[in-house]
Here is the input.
Amino acid sequence: MMGGVSMTALPDTALPEVAFAGRSNVGKSSLVNALTGRKTLARSSGEPGRTRELNFFDLGGRLRLVDLPGYGFAKAPKDVAQRWTALTRDYLRGRVNLKRVVLLIDARHGIKASDVEVMDVLDKSAVVYQIALTKLDKLKPSEQAAIVTATQEKIRKRPAAFPAVAATSSAKRLGLDALRADLADLAVPEPM
Here is the structure.
């Protein structure tokens, strides 16, 4: 793991990267841990705003996962939160090896205005993003299907949106295999 607090301090661009973005406390670190099968790879916390830098995780020299600071609520001084926001924005707009952003949306709340702002930036920057609904286990099965359908409809005409919505629960390990397969397609192929 490596953390970056400025664009000049980030690792080289030799590996493809997948970044995890979303509102504070949506479950970014928990999803990174669940996808990799390592409970403590990314530090997760019940306290919103815990991730305060870009955290890079090298997956066997084939792919790098990037846990971004959350947007929205954060228990931090305003100037610190503005620095995280600027760094994240610069990273999303200017990282040549960024292959996809996984944009996490809490399934209980759906897409919020702040999520739409991020999608607008990604659309304008032509950065492919995939919606991952989190905390799906908190909904009834009938509600799960409805939120997936509603989310797919909201992104259908967005130019940079990946068409498949991932419906996940880190706690119950739902949807992880499908998302893992989507992301594996972005990794450097294993040597023969």
